[in-house]
Amino acid sequence: MMTTEFCATQDSVRTMSRHEAEAWLFREARLIDEYRLHDWLALFADDGLYWAPIDDRQAPGTTVALIHDTSLRRRERVYRLLETQAHAQDPLSRTQHVVGNVEVEPAGDGEVRVFSSQIVYEIRAGLADYRQLGLGEQRSFAARCEHRLRWQDGQWKIALKKMLLLNRDIAIENLTFIL
Hints:
single chain, 179 residues, alpha+beta, Nuclear Transport Factor 2, Chain: A, six-stranded mixed beta sheet, 19% helix
């Protein structure tokens, strides 16, 4: 059973209310939408995973995924977006996240699971031509999300960010931006 709040049974266990979870998710979404990607990276625990599986019944790393970013892969993704001129992100995607249906439950081991529904709107400005299809077309991605958060160094850090896209099992063009 999911609850919107839960109580600590030990002093060492940190809790999170639904209101706190919403504020945390809203901040993460704003960091992405404003392209404050180094700040977004800082939200992750060192061993955190950013994962968009195709089949969420399988464990991370055991099957094909749209995104399976460990710490190194997240840093590489951010470096490519901010420091290189990648054709797939020239011009850069503009995104707008809408976050709702937030629920919180204890996960054990001092972690909490935060569930949400998210819609990510994405557009790359410009007119499509023979070199880049899709320019100027707004796309939307609906997802069921799970964040597993761990209290670490006085703040909540992402141990797992799982984005289960509704259209995960059909072809998706140019998923090089951050969901």
